[in-house]
Amino acid sequence: MCALTIAVVGTRITRVVDQLADRTGIGEAAAGAVLLGGATSLGGSVLSVTAALHGHAELAISNAVGGIAVQTFFLSMADIVYRRANLEHAAASVPNLMQNALLISLLALILLTPYLPDVTIWGIHPVTPLLFGFYIYGLRLVQSASEKPMWRPSQTRETRQDTPEDTSRMPALPRLWGEFLGLAVILGIAGWALEPAATTIATQANLGQTVVGVMLTAVSTSIPELVTSIAAVRRGALTLAVGGIIGGNAFDTLFMAASDLGYREGSIYHAIPDDSTFWLALTLVMSGILMMGMIRRERHGIGKIGAESVAIIALYGLGVVILFAG
């Protein structure tokens, strides 16, 4: 029921964010990263923090890293839906490249932290405020790159520009903000209700919390990203589709920082199990391949699906096999 609620609400919120991007003039890349990425990630963030508060560090961590991995996989699914050309080619933009660079930096910092001293202040590791600060600074760089880019991708027949729709036919701005906030609250409540169900499933089905986090909660709370990216592609909002996934992934790294605030047994980074470390490293590789795809900008690839998308699908499938084999 929670997963179904997240899917339905996530579908609706895409259209609202697309209209807010045009109404406010912030652009689809920024709206996808901040508004769409943040809102659709609320369910997952609430779940991770709730799990951390209850002392379930493994579930909180695996839900965070599993969500980033599956959302990158979902972007490859959106590439399959967009049959005109390779999605990485059509949606190439400086803000999306900056977002992906921010994501890679944040993931690398999380992967590095367990090798730093296990020191906490009031139960909070020093890397936690650093993650928040780095994310905010990164968003400023993304916005600057959007407003005053120092270089631009070459325009081709397959490139789709962020073209605002006719705002006179859209609902009023206060109504759009009200609907956006209402839908975001529903997503957060669904994530809060999903945590006890996931914990019970892990216990009674005799499954590890990493398996439940990566394959159940991460997928369930990431359904909006799949639905919204495909819906955005079908609407022709390619920059929004890619920006929503990458921006959501960058926001999802803050799950770890927020979970560290809720985890009262020490540094949550030093409680990262080996399986989650593997998924962190795998997600870094997937994100790097995605970024190379946006820079390379292959036109058609394998049956109009980018070679990078094929590689990401293969890597995610390999990760699932290794997870269950272990």
From TrEMBL:
Location of the protein in the cell: Membrane
Entry's Gene Ontology cellular component terms: plasma membrane
Domain Sodium/calcium exchanger membrane region span(s) in chain numbering: 1-115, 179-324
An individual GO BP term: intracellular calcium ion homeostasis
Keyword vocabulary terms for this entry: Membrane, Transmembrane, Transmembrane helix
Residues forming coiled coils: none
One Pfam family it belongs to: Na_Ca_ex
Membrane topology summary: Multi-pass membrane protein
One GO molecular-function entry: calcium, potassium:sodium antiporter activity
Transmembrane segments: 29-53, 59-82, 94-116, 122-142, 176-194, 206-226, 238-258, 278-295, 307-325
Protein name: Cation transporter
Source organism of this protein record: Tamilnaduibacter salinus
Taxonomic lineage from the root: Bacteria, Pseudomonadati, Pseudomonadota, Gammaproteobacteria, Pseudomonadales
